[in-house]
Design brief:
It contains no helices and 11 strands. It is mainly beta. β5 and β6 form a beta hairpin. It starts with a strand and ends with a strand.
Length: 126
């Protein structure tokens, strides 16, 4: 019942910044927990950040803490991932996810999310 449309990926130099957007179509994100995950070639999918539907508590992967920020704009029905101080090892396909019934203990688990975007490529050059 919800389509997630991602944008904002691209090529950036190490040390630079990107802001990824995830626009939700069909449901208000007020009632959805939103997450970002990434997967690099040959590596497992990795949790990046999430924001809980009730109260907006945020969660971050260890590598993202202090560099990445997840946020949401209810008026635009869009979640964002602001990425600063990017490193070559941040290169990956970044995917947006949404779920209606997540609890705190499952916010970092991709399998708990019901809906997924198509993914957007982020490439950080040295």
């Amino acid at each position: 019942q919800v389509q997630l449309v991602e944008s904002g990926g691209g090529l950036v130099q190490a040390g630079g910044s990107l802001r990824l957007s995830c626009a939700a179509i069909g449901r208000t994100i007020r009632n959805l927990s939103m997450g970002w995950f990434r997967q690099a070639p040959g590596k497992e999918r990795e949790f990046v950040a999430a924001i809980k539907r009730n109260g907006g508590a945020t969660f971050y992967g260890d590598f993202a803490e202090g560099r990445f920020t997840i946020s949401r704009d209810f008026a635009k029905n869009t979640a964002y991932l602001q990425m600063n101080s990017l490193r070559p090892e941040d290169t990956a396909v970044y995917s947006c996810a949404a779920g209606s019934g997540l609890i705190t203990s499952t916010m970092r688990n991709g399998a708990a999310y019901e809906y997924w975007g198509q993914g957007t490529q982020v490439t950080v050059s040295s």
